[in-house]
Write a structure and sequence with these properties.
163 residues, mainly alpha, Arc Repressor Mutant, subunit A, elongated
Length: 163
C-alpha cells in the first residue's frame, strides 16, 4: 500500500495554491517551478481538481487557478479522491478475492487500515496544512506576499504574518 505521486503531488500543489491565492489566480507554471512538478502533470491534476469543484480556473493574461471554497472546507481525502487516487491496502481492491478467489486471512486487517487511513485523512483540512507551512517557514511566505503587495502600492510596509 502506498500513496502514489498523483495524490502526493495534488496535495502539495493545493497547499502551494492555498498559500498564494490571496494575491489572485496562481499559475500552474509557478507551482511547477516552486514544487518541481511537471507542468503537464499539474495540468492533468488541476483538470480533475476543477471538475471535482476544489479549484476554479481563470483564463487570460494574469490567469491561473483559485480555490473554489475555503481551505477549512477541504480535506486531504477530498483532494485525493478528486484525482482518482485509490487508497487501498488490500490486494483485492475490496473484492474479497485475495487468495484463490476467496478472502485471505489478513483481509480484515488491511480493510480496517483502509478505514483508518480515510478517517485520518478526512480529519486533516487544507487549512491545517497551510498553517503548518506558515509555522514551518516562520511566515516567510506571508512576507513574500506582503513584499509583492508593497511593490504594487507605494509606501506600503511589508509585514510578516506569524502564527
Amino acid at each position: 500500500m502506498r500513496l502514489t505521486t498523483k495524490g502526493r503531488f495534488a496535495v502539495t500543489a493545493m497547499i502551494d495554491l492555498a498559500l498564494r491565492c490571496s494575491e489572485g489566480p496562481v499559475s500552474l507554471a509557478g507551482i511547477s517551478e516552486r514544487q518541481k512538478i511537471s507542468l503537464s502533470y499539474l495540468e492533468q491534476l488541476f483538470g480533475k481538481l476543477r471538475r471535482y469543484g476544489l479549484v476554479e480556473s481563470v483564463r487570460g493574461p494574469g490567469g491561473g487557478y483559485c480555490l473554489a471554497r475555503p481551505t477549512i472546507q477541504m480535506t486531504v481525502t477530498d483532494i485525493i479522491r478528486a484525482v482518482d487516487e485509490p487508497l487501498d491496502a488490500t490486494q483485492c481492491g475490496g473484492r474479497e478475492n485475495c487468495k484463490d478467489d476467496e478472502r485471505c486471512m489478513t483481509h480484515e486487517l488491511w480493510s480496517t487500515l483502509n478505514d483508518k487511513m480515510y478517517e485520518f485523512l478526512s480529519s486533516v483540512t487544507l487549512a491545517e496544512l497551510v498553517e503548518q507551512q506558515l509555522t514551518k517557514t516562520g511566515g516567510q511566505i506571508a512576507i513574500l506576499q506582503d513584499a509583492r503587495r508593497s511593490r504594487q502600492r507605494p509606501r506600503a510596509k511589508a509585514v510578516a504574518i506569524s502564527s
